[in-house]
Amino acid sequence: MVGSNPPGAVAPSTTPNTALSASETSFVNHAAEDGMFEVEIAKVAATKATDPAVKSFAQRLVDDHTAANDKLRQIAASHNITLPASMPASKQKDIDRLNKLSGAQFDREFIQMVGIKDHKTDIDMFEKISKDAKASDLRDFAQSTLPTLREHLAQAQKLPGKS
């Protein structure tokens, strides 16, 4: 039959290579910048944190956000979007500021900034695009990433020294 896929084949997506709206493009760029930041600062925390639970949390962030960043890169490429090559200067300043801290103070700031504050912001951003996106691949990405972001927030809120 013409136009049908063999059994087990994945139907081609209907959205790749289509232009995204301004809000969708903005989401892709912000998510890429935030993802880069969270991977970089979590790499620092995975080695610099003093509490083993914070180190473990940081390594999970590295793993999960690296995977999400890879998926986002594929979506951006399918829509001919060039992602930012580096994070904004403000995010680099946050990394530099955290790098100057040590011990329990570093752990507390990392949990507050990355684990709680950034994840609340990310969840809001991903919830909005998961409802508003017209591009199904972008909407699916946001919807499939939200549970992980919520798990990260819940885990951060349970870490010692979060307050």
Q: How would you characterize the overall build of this protein?
A:
This protein is an all-alpha fold and about 160 residues long. The protein has a single domain (about 20-160), classed as Up-down Bundle (Ferritin). The protein is built from five helices and no strands. Helix 1 packs parallel to helix 3 (about 90-100). The longest helix is centred in the last third of the chain and has 30 residues, at about 105-130. It is elongated, with a radius of gyration of 18 Å.
Rounded mean pLDDT score? 90
Count helical runs.
Answer: 5
Shape: elongated
Helix-strand pattern, N to C?
HHHHH
Q: Helical residue percent?
A: over 70%
Query: What is the first-to-last residue Cα distance?
Result: 63 Å
CATH class: Mainly Alpha
The CATH topology annotation reads as: Ferritin
Determine Rg (CA atoms, Å): 18 Å
Number of strands: 0
Strand content: under 5%
The CATH H-level superfamily is: Ferritin, core subunit, four-helix bundle
Could you name the ranges where pLDDT drops below 50 across 5 or more consecutive residues?
A: 1-16
Taking the sheet with the most strands, its summary is: none
CATH architecture: Up-down Bundle
What oligomeric state is this? single chain
Tally of distinct domains: 1
Structural class: mainly alpha
